[in-house]
Design goal:
Elements: H1 4-15, H2 24-35, H3 40-50, H4 54-61, E1 75-80, H5 83-101, E2 107-108, E3 114-119, E4 131-133, E5 136-138, H6 143-155, H7 170-177, H8 193-205, H9 229-236, H10 239-253
Parallel strand pairs: 1-3
Antiparallel strand pairs: 1-4, 2-3, 4-5
Helix pairs in contact: 1-2, 1-3, 2-3, 2-7, 3-4, 5-6, 8-9, 8-10
The structure holds FE2/S2 (inorganic) cluster.
Residues 80, 82, 84-85, 121-122, 124-125, 128, 130 line the site of FE2/S2 (inorganic) cluster (FES).
């Protein structure tokens, strides 16, 4: 039986949408933030709040990989082993972590601290090989740095995402995904140099987007892509991006 406060929050989520059932995905995240997984009780509660069948809720919960039917540890550690990350070291990282933690894919350590899983491409290939902790990015890892990371998590030492906030627990992150902010949204860098390299090159060369026939005027260099100025400033200072720019310039000149 879910706590009454959780049932009230499930109703609150459903009320945010013109069609209540549109709230099912964040509702399932809320269930996970309380139960540590999608439980039969959680499915029943969502179904009752939305006025749909448990089978319909279950169909959604079993479709998406972010919903877990087995208990997740305090931290969910993902290793991208899709092709680019795999060849850049993702496979080696997973093997090392699996050996170090004594668990396989989708398994949890005996102390309940870490669940290890293979993840598919997270659209962060420019930071390969990439890992995630509770869905936050930890970029450009090695087998050694990955072991250090999980050891810190198991010891309760504070760690930060490389492009985000300090890392909380999986349940805390699940509550954020349910639509209840934790106040950490502005912690850490919003974007890194590799992701902004194209923008940096465009600004250096004075490139702008062509005007849209039915949209607002083309974005100029100072507002390109609507990126926050803080991120742009960080990008301009990034040696990596600058080096890539120079390389591209040389190739173009040739
Ligand atoms: S292949 Fe790993 S993030 Fe794309």
């Amino acid at each position: 039986m879910l706590p009454e406060t959780t049932i009230a929050e499930l109703r609150e989520i459903a009320s945010r949408y013109p069609e209540a059932r549109s709230g099912l995905l964040p509702m399932l995240h809320l269930v996970q933030s309380v139960e540590g997984r999608v439980t039969p009780e959680g499915i029943e509660a969502c179904a009752e709040v939305l006025g749909i069948s448990a089978a319909e809720v279950s169909g959604v919960a079993t479709f998406y990989t972010m919903y877990k039917r087995r208990p997740v540890g305090e931290h969910l550690v993902g290793v991208c082993t899709t092709t680019l990350c795999a060849v850049m070291g993702g496979d080696a990282i997973f093997e090392r972590l699996s050996e170090h933690l004594g668990v396989g894919n989708d398994e949890t350590t005996a102390d309940g601290r870490v669940t290890l899983e293979r993840i598919e491409c997270n659209a962060a290939c420019d930071y390969a090989p990439v890992m995630t902790v509770n869905w936050e990015f930890v970029d450009q890892q090695t087998p050694e740095s990955a072991v250090e990371l999980v050891d810190d998590l198991r010891a309760g030492r504070e760690r930060h995402s490389t492009r985000g906030p300090r890392l909380g627990t999986w349940k805390e992150t699940e509550r954020v995904l349910a639509g209840f902010p934790d106040g950490r949204a502005d912690e850490g860098p919003a974007a890194g140099a590799p992701s902004l390299a194209g923008l940096t090159i465009a600004r250096e060369r004075g490139w702008t987007a062509p005007p849209s026939p039915d949209g607002p005027a083309a974005l100029g260099p100072s507002s390109a892509a609507g990126q926050p100025e803080t991120a742009l400033a960080a990008a301009e200072e990034a040696d990596t991006a600058r080096a890539e720019s120079e390389t591209l310039q040389e190739e173009t000149d040739e």
